[in-house]
Write a structure and sequence with these properties.
With 333 residues, this protein is α/β, with parallel strands linked by helices. The chain contains 13 helices and ten strands. The protein has a six-stranded mixed β-sheet, with helices on both faces. Strands 3-4 form a two-stranded antiparallel ribbon. The chain has a two-stranded parallel ribbon with strand order 7-8. Helix 1 runs parallel beside helix 5, helix 1 packs across helix 6 and helix 10 packs across helix 13.
């Protein structure tokens, strides 16, 4: 198999860890591949580029040396940028217009592209997310969906590869992208060795266990915000669409339409998400049994809630608690 040429497009304000995390993991893959088969060519050639070449300053002012863009790489990767606040991802970043245009031209010439974390917004500005599945950091996924409504945004996915456009979750997902590339170019033996040596989880596929709904932005001063607040105050009450509509003096149909238009989801979907978020908090911070947690969030049947929880989080309530406790124990050592 020929060496795959990976070009990382750096720019002022990009996240340095996303650049170097990918570069270093693919360098490790080259070393592992050479150790297992000295006659084989390197798996990857990784080049850090920028439109002007020379030095760029990553987030925090860290300098990164770059080369000018190379012709026809096998993959062009764009890291995410530092965002001072979440409003930054909802407006076109004029300073990066040249990078956006370059990404669009490269893809039009047949070069596959990938983005780490909020680098997905640059792919969206380039028109490359329209009609495709995509993901980004779960924290900014609702913003990506609102800004690029023609994209099908999956906030729980760790990595999405759709038609030559790859997007990933939050900034440590640069390692998931690296392992994805190793998986495509090397044997399972090399992939396992890279994951073990780098202490990387090569089996994680979802951001869902990490989502904290309390950190998600809500539309302020809107009809939907009022409905969501009303539901939050009655989290354990049975879902009754007619009761909610009556509380806001609208018809069922009007309630559904207005909430969906403003949030992209139904009141029931919001309530289920909020209940799962509350259950996660209780599983993390209390010794309540799963059955007691289930009751606290408005479900009488643990099996029904367990299925809902697994659909949102990717694991059972008991499994989530075990994983959280294990992670907390490791952090405390």
């Amino acid at each position: 198999m020929k060496t795959k040429r990976i070009a990382m497009l750096a720019y002022h304000g990009c996240m340095g860890m996303e650049v170097f995390g990918l570069c270093d993991t693919l360098l490790l893959a080259n070393r592992v591949g050479a150790a297992l088969d000295a006659a084989a060519p390197p798996l990857f050639e990784v080049i850090v580029t920028s439109l002007g070449g020379g030095q760029v300053r990553a987030a925090g002012g860290i300098p990164i040396g770059t080369r000018k863009p190379v012709a026809a790489p096998d993959l062009l990767v764009v890291p995410g940028m530092e965002l001072a606040d979440r409003h930054g991802c909802m407006a076109t970043i004029d300073a990066l217009a040249p990078e956006v245009a370059y990404l669009a031209r490269a893809f039009a010439r047949g070069t596959p592209v990938a983005a780490v974390c909020v680098g997905a917004f640059l792919l969206g500005d380039a028109g490359l997310l329209d009609g495709r599945r995509a993901t980004t950091s779960w924290l900014f996924a609702p913003d990506l969906a609102r800004r690029f409504p023609a994209a099908r945004v999956d906030p729980a996915a760790m990595l999405v590869d759709d038609g030559g456009v790859t997007t990933t979750g939050s900034f440590t997902a640069t390692f998931d992208l690296a392992l994805h590339l190793v998986r495509q170019s090397a044997s399972a033996r090399v992939q396992r060795a890279v994951a073990r040596m780098g202490l990387l989880d090569d089996g994680r596929t979802s951001q869902a266990p990490f989502i904290d709904t309390r950190m998600l932005a809500r539309p302020e001063g809107t009809f939907a915000a009022s409905v969501c607040a009303w539901l939050d105050q009655r989290l354990a009450a049975p879902y009754d669409l007619k009761r909610i509509a009556a509380a806001f003096h609208v018809s069922d149909r009007t309630l559904l339409r207005r909430v969906k238009d403003e949030t992209g989801q139904t009141p029931l979907a919001y309530l289920q998400q909020a209940r799962v978020g509350k259950a996660k908090l209780l599983l993390e911070s209390t010794s309540l049994s799963v059955a007691q947690v289930t009751e606290r969030v408005g479900y009488a049947d643990a099996a029904t809630f367990g299925a809902l929880f697994k659909r949102h989080v990717g694991q059972s309530p008991a499994g989530y608690r075990r994983r959280f406790c294990a992670a907390r124990g490791m952090a405390g050592n």
